[in-house]
Amino acid sequence: MEKAIHMDPSFTLDEKIKKGKEAGEKFQSDTNVDVQAKGADIATKTTLATKASDLVTSLETQLAAAITAKKTAETNLDSSYNSGVDKANEIYPNNAEILKGLSLTMSLHNKNVAICGQTIGCSAVQSLHSGKVNAHWHSLKFAKDFKVMETTDALGTMDETKYYPANPTSFDNSKGGEITPKTLGVPTWWRVYGHNASGDGVWSDPFGGFPIH
Fold first, then answer.
1. Is 166 helix (H, G, I), strand (E, B) or coil?
2. Are the C-beta atoms of 208 and 189 separated by less than 8 Å?
3. What whole-number distance in Å separates Cα of residue 204 and Cα of residue 119?
C-alpha cells in the first residue's frame, strides 16, 4: 500500500513552509496513542507520544527560522519534515487513510511492476529454539520481499491497525523463517504481505493464534 513521502525538493520555500505548517498542525492534533503504539506497552506509548511532540516542536522551530535564515532553514525544514514522514510511516504502516489525514503527500505506485497478490499458505509452529516460532508461507510472484506483522489482540486479528511489525520485520522472497514474538506465553497472530517497487501487496489471512514459549 501507499506510504507518505519526503518533502518535494522542487517546492518553493513558501510552499515548504505551508506544507510544514499543515503537517505540524495535524501531528499536533493527532492524539490517538493506542493506534500509534500498535499495542505497545505504556513505556513505549509514552516514548512515541514524546517523539511526536518533539517532531511538532522541531517543525515549528524550523518554520520560524526559515523566515530569517532562508538558505539554512530550508535544509533544516526538509530534514524535520522528512523525519516526521518517516515516523508517521513507522507508526501507521499500511494505513494510507491516516497518513493522508496527516496532510502527507502519498507516494505513487510504480506502474512497471505489478502489485503483489495475497500471500497464501501461511502457517506457524513452535520452534525448537526457545521463544521463537517457525513461520512459513508460499513464495509470491513479483514480491521483492515479505513484510511480517504481529498482534496479540484476539478481537482484532482482521484489523490491520491492531498489528505491529514482527521481529524480524521482513524476509526475502522465500518461504519464511524464525520469528521472535514480542510477548511470550500469550496467543499471537501474524499476517504477511509481499512488497516490491509498486508498494505493499494484499495482507495474508491471520495465522498462528497460540502462545509461544
1. strand
2. yes
3. 5
